[in-house]
Amino acid sequence: MKEKILKKREGFEGQQLIVVPKKIAADFLTKDPITRQLYITDIGYYPRARFHYVKRTVGVGQHIIIYCIEGRGWIEIDKKRIDVLPSQFIIIPSGMAHKYMSEEEDPWTIYWIHFKGDISAFIVELILQRAKNYKLHLTYNETRIRLFEEICLNLQKGYSGDNLRYVNMIFNHFLSSLLYEEKFNYSGKEQPDDVIAHTIGMMQERLDQVITLQELSGYAGLSISHFSAVFREKTGYSPIEYFNHLKIQKACQYLMFSSATVKEVANRLGVEDQYYFSRMFSKLMGMSPSEYRNRNKAVEQ
């Protein structure tokens, strides 16, 4: 009897999804001495993800971690079907065919990460040595969740070199909490606020608008030339370029989890010219918005 599967395309209430642009990976992550060792390509959180289903007949080019904190689901890998329960995580090696699904009556809540890097295969092997059928049990730990949330929070602030090093070094800590749970000890420390951080926060709140360099420098209380110099020193990018990165990050979410047309997505991000938006998206992501959407649809076929 053929398996009946319902698929959800519009996303899940309260979800998070961040995809690091291919250009950022190629220009920085694969070259920097720190990040090239181990780096995140995609990260997300799906709460109560009813009808969540993914099938990849040839796997993907990254390793995958799925950490279930409540509900139930299953994964099929290496010709084995494995039930996934709360406080369990699954590791899926790069290039391995798999499919997984949330249970309809008791849908899972999961944190998930795709990652690569020079030492990533070695890390996966260490995890597999401790796992049974690609699965490990973890005691729920709020500080581990905070690590995940801090990665997401900082990735949402953009792709400066320091930011990318920071989040991927946190990711190393996150992985150590999976591998060496008994040794895991985390003491969170807030990063100090500054004028650039405040300005980036304002950018995030106004992704649906057009903001001029003059407005940004005025918000920061600095001259345009001084603000631009300080911003580039802190982030590695000009203020407008950085703002566009944040817009494309949000565009990925619209394309992945809504049926909005490319023109509608552009309008939601304050870009009236659909073709300018498509060029901006293609430059950063390495493919057009339509190609990006179709690629993710194909993943779930």
TrEMBL record:
Give GO terms: molecular function aspect only: DNA-binding transcription factor activity; sequence-specific DNA binding
The cross-references to SMART domains, in alphabetical order and at most eight, read: HTH_ARAC
Q: Which SUPFAM superfamilies match?
A: Homeodomain-like, Regulatory protein AraC
Ranges for domain HTH araC/xylS-type come to 197-295
Keywords in alphabetical order, please.
DNA-binding, Transcription, Transcription regulation
Gene3D superfamilies named in the record: Homeodomain-like (1.10.10.60), Regulatory protein AraC (2.60.120.280)
List the Pfam families.
AraC_binding, HTH_18
Q: Which InterPro entries match?
A: AraC-bd, Homeodomain-like_sf, HTH-like, HTH_AraC, HTH_AraC-typ_CS, Tscrpt_reg_AraC-type_HTH
Official protein name in the record: AraC family transcriptional regulator
Species this chain originates from: Chitinophaga ginsengisoli
